[in-house]
Design a protein that fits this description.
The structure holds two protein chains of two kinds. By secondary structure, chain A is mainly α. Chain A is built from four helices and no strands. Chain A is globular. Chain B has a single domain, classed as NAD(P)-binding Rossmann-like Domain (Rossmann fold). Helix content of chain B is about 40%, strand content about 15%. Chain B has seven helices and seven strands; from the N terminus they run βαβαβαβαβαβααβ. Chain B has a seven-stranded parallel beta sheet, sandwiched between helices. In chain B, strand 1, helix 1 and strand 2 form a beta-alpha-beta unit. The longest helix of chain B is centred in the middle third of the chain and has 24 residues. At the A-B interface, helix 2 and helix 3 of A face loops of B.
Chain lengths: ~80, ~250
């Protein structure tokens, strides 16, 4: 697991936002496209790709993509 | 004058409840026993099932408990052979998942269908085939408005399993009517049980979602248990093949 690959998996849950907008520092909940369905997709993607079950609160407690990455890495 | 008019009484009836260790199954088992039924309760976890058993009405005697994993054919057959003749059954055991459809792989569908569809259908089939249901018995399947509405994003896999269950309910109702056995389902909206507090959806999101219900709240397990009591009782003698929506007005 590395951050670049995670960012790509993260970005592929979005349709309108350009890939360049996703960096470790991106405040993802500020994105126009952010929604409750996007949150569910991130949770499902993390389960699929990394075999880690995260919760809605992990998303709430993360501001940046790096924050979420760190949470997942701790559980791996 | 004593008023003993009570068409909802379950006195003299023996009723099976699956998934009786928590949530809707637990509330249903307790409510049925309080309406006078002798209960046969089943679940996977011995300790939690005992908790339910301790709360059954002691005045309705002879309650039985049986541990079973209903996705195991061996366990289902053991349960069937241990069953006394039944006047009713409420099949509550089930699971849910919140998963956007693009992640709904065959594996995810299989997991959900094994628990929510194949397990109750096999139990229903064998109860009928092995004649464990008395003439005039009433069977209640726990479906969901998730089977008829997209009530929340990410419930397609779950909803499909409940829609399939509802479909079987109608055929069973038609075919089992020859023995005067009734088969109905309950389609609850979101009910406040441990199943919905697993964290995929946050508590804040749940509180927000509850506002979509015209009656202003999610259901309580007792709201559904009382519907099951009606469907099990002689008050609903002329009702079969029906899906009873209990959802606080969500699907209006």
């Amino acid at each position: 697991m590395n951050i670049q690959e995670f960012i790509e998996n993260f970005a592929s849950q979005f349709d309108e936002t350009e890939l360049e907008e996703f960096t470790p520092e991106t405040n993802f909940k500020q994105l126009d496209e952010w929604s409750s369905l996007a949150a569910l997709s991130i949770i499902a993607m993390v389960d699929d790709e990394y075999d880690v079950i995260i919760k809605g609160n992990d998303i709430i407690n993360s501001n940046t993509i790096q924050d979420l990455y760190d949470i997942i890495e701790k559980q791996k | 004058m004593t008023n003993d008019f009570n068409p909802f009484s379950l006195e003299g009836k023996t009723i099976l409840v699956t998934g009786a260790s928590s949530g809707i199954g637990q509330a249903t088992a307790i409510a049925c026993s309080r309406m006078g039924a002798r209960m046969v309760i089943t679940a996977r976890d011995r300790q939690r099932l005992q908790t339910t058993c301790d709360e059954l009405n002691p005045h309705a005697e002879g309650h039985l408990q049986q541990i079973a994993e209903l996705t195991s054919q061996e366990d289902v057959e053991r349960l069937i052979s241990a069953l006394p003749p039944l006047d009713g059954a409420v099949l509550c055991a089930g699971n849910s998942t919140t998963l956007p459809l693009q992640f709904g792989s065959r594996e995810k569908f299989d997991e959900m269908f094994d628990v929510n569809f194949f397990a109750p259908v096999e139990l229903l089939r064998l109860m009928y085939k092995k004649k464990r249901l008395n003439k005039g018995a009433s069977v209640v399947l726990l479906a969901s408005i998730g089977g008829t509405h997209s009530f929340m994003p990410g419930n397609g896999v779950y909803g499909a399993s409940k829609a399939a269950l509802n479909s079987v309910m109608r055929y069973a109702a038609r075919e089992f009517a020859s023995r005067r056995i009734r088969v109905n389902s309950i389609c609850p909206g979101m009910v406040d049980t441990p199943l919905i507090h697993r964290g995929t959806i946050t508590e804040e999101q749940l509180a927000e979602d509850a506002k979509k219900y015209p009656l202003g709240r999610y259901g309580q397990p007792a709201d559904i248990a009382n519907g099951a009591v009606y469907l099990l009782s002689d008050a609903s003698s002329w009702l079969t093949g029906h899906d009873l929506v209990i959802d606080g007005g969500f699907s209006i």
